[in-house]
Automatic annotation (TrEMBL), chain B:
Record flagged with keyword Transcription regulation: no
Family: Belongs to the binding-protein-dependent transport system permease family. HisMQ subfamily.
Transmembrane segments: 29-50, 71-88, 108-127
Protein name in the entry: Amino acid ABC transporter permease
Superkingdom: Bacteria
Gene3D superfamilies for the chain: MetI-like
Organism: Crenobacter caeni
PROSITE patterns: ABC_TM1 (PS50928)
Domain ABC transmembrane type-1: start-end pairs: 29-230
């Protein structure tokens, strides 16, 4: 398998504070990788480095052959190819759902409005929200907003998708509707890097699990190995805590 | 107190040509409105730009905007006015100087000075409102906008500014009202705007109370109309499902 995302010896500091220490891993095309770990361990930071929402000081990240840290890289173009879904949805509240789905297609990819809206509508139907096309994000529930956010990312025909705790701001009854969409995506072969604590999802859908602690990648292995016998004590503690809930 | 109220004074002749006092007020109101609108246009454009600059990652641009704000906010308005009217013209090129000081109608040169002064003064205040409005947005919005591939100008144009604009309507409304109130400093350099006309009426007719009552009423009506209008604008652009309370 060829590599979609390659992270090599990445370190990052906020001033004196080191958030990431020598992180190395990769995501192959079509692979689904779940990133987990305690709060503050640097999961969000790592995933944001992948599409250059955060700069890093050391190491290299290569996405589909393009070096993210290279100052000559056209970052907006790179980001337009990498879909990202956030914990708090971050739909554009002043635009309708239709406009949310169309605007980047039009302004970034140069698609015509009709084409963009048709594509948006098709994706909306796919996540089961076609009837809400005319509404504004504030008029939808959290789970609905997150499904729209996934559709917004898909509208750009991304080569891979990044998820940063997509379900942790949701009420429990809404978590599954979002996980279902993600599961479907994974089954279609989308390359995905997901920060999530949904271990059921990881067990069912992931190929690999990465465990982070205090800025280090502590475990990086096949999901069966991770759930079967995590080697590090920290990962064992983390798992036993999270599986209790 | 033995004061002879006479509300008919406004329809009496001023003794100059065939003008009545009301004509003075109308002309004064005209200058006040012309002054406030032009100054407000300057303040919005420059203040908006500076406000955006203060939120940019570039240290030089944001530093420049900060310096502007510090300068224009910390020098009293009257001092600024005297600088624009008495000092700045002396540093204009020879020909422009002659034109400004001698050929131009003195009312017009005063108008230009006050407009610039008030516009640039208010720009500093508008800048701060715009900056606060942008910074009040959730940080994830800028990230989400960049994540779909927008360039920095597009992030501002399509995501940050349309939202910030709605947030800053109430504070900008009160800045706009301040422009009207502050426009009365123009009377100090001889521009016959509303306050100056009221003063002149009081002096000519000795009906001091009527003159200032009318001026007060006019300022009050202006302010109320602007507030009503801006309240209407705010309602029109309100985002469905959001800002139900009409943010303060
Ligand atoms: N802008 C910043 N400036 C300074 N420190 C930061 C900044 N952003 C994050 N940090 C710190 O970096 C560390 C890693 O943060 P990060 O958000 O990546 O953690 P996380 O693993 O995603 O945690 P969570 O599960 O709470 O989302 C934390 O200790 C955090 O306090
Ligand atoms: Mg996080």
């Amino acid at each position: 398998m060829s590599e979609m995302i390659s992270i090599q010896n990445v370190s990052k500091w906020y001033g004196e504070f080191q958030v990431l220490t020598d992180c190395t891993t990769s995501v192959a095309k079509g692979e689904v990788v779940v990133v987990c770990g305690p709060s503050g361990s640097g999961k969000s930071t790592l995933i944001k480095c992948v599409n250059a929402l955060e700069p890093f000081q050391k190491g290299e990240i290569i996405v589909n052959g393009t070096s993210v840290g290279n100052p000559k890289t056209n970052l907006p173009k790179l980001r337009s190819q990498v879909g990202m879904v956030f914990q708090h949805f971050e739909l554009f509240p002043h635009l309708t759902i239709t406009e949310n789905l169309a605007i980047a297609q039009i302004k970034v990819l140069g698609r015509g409005r009709d084409e963009a809206e048709a594509k948006g509508l098709a994706l909306l139907e796919r996540v089961g929200l076609k009837a809400h096309a005319h509404k504004h994000p504030g008029q939808l529930s959290g789970g609905q907003q997150q499904r729209v956010a996934i559709a917004r990312a898909l509208a750009m025909d991304p080569i891979c998708m990044l998820f940063d705790e997509p379900t942790s701001a949701l009420d429990p009854e809404m978590i599954n509707e979002v996980l279902d969409v993600m599961t479907e995506l994974a089954q279609e072969g989308m390359t995905m890097m997901c920060v999530t604590h949904e271990m059921g999802f990881a067990r069912r859908v992931a190929d690999r699990v990465i465990f982070m602690d205090r800025g280090h990648i502590v475990e990086d292995c096949h999901k069966d190995a991770f759930f079967g016998s995590p080697r590090s004590e920290r990962a064992q503690q983390f798992l036993s805590k999270i599986l209790q809930h | 107190m033995n004061y002879n109220w006479d509300w008919n004074i406004f329809f009496k002749s001023t003794g100059i040509g065939d003008e009545i006092y009301l004509d003075w007020f109308i002309s004064g109101l005209g200058w006040t409105i012309a002054l406030a609108l032009a100054a407000w246009a300057i303040a919005l454009v420059i203040g908006g730009l500076l406000g955006v600059m203060r939120t940019l990652p570039n240290k030089w641009l944001s530093g420049l905007a900060t310096a502007y704000v510090e300068l224009f906010r910390n020098v009293p308005l009257l001092v600024q006015l005297f600088i624009w009217y008495f000092v700045v013209p002396d540093y204009l090129p020879e020909q422009t100087q002659v034109w400004f000081k001698q050929e131009l109608n003195p009312m017009v040169s005063a108008y230009i000075s006050v407009t610039l002064c008030l516009g640039l003064f208010t720009a500093a205040r508008v800048c701060e409102q715009v900056r606060t409005g942008i910074q009040a947005l959730p940080k994830g919005q800028a990230n989400a906008a960049m994540a779909v591939g927008f360039t920095l100008p597009q992030v501002y144009r399509h995501v940050l500014l349309p939202q910030a604009f709605r947030v800053v309507i109430p504070p900008l409304t009160s800045e706009f009202l301040n422009v009207f109130k502050n426009s009365s400093v123009a009377s100090l350099i001889g521009l016959m705007e509303l306050l100056a006309q009221a003063k002149q009426t009081a002096e000519f007719s000795a009906n001091i109370f009527e003159a200032f009552t009318l001026a007060t009423l006019i300022y009050f009506t202006l302010n109320m109309s602007i507030m009503k209008f801006m309240g209407w604008v705010e309602k029109r652009v309100r985002i469905p499902g959001l800002m139900v309370e009409g943010g303060k």
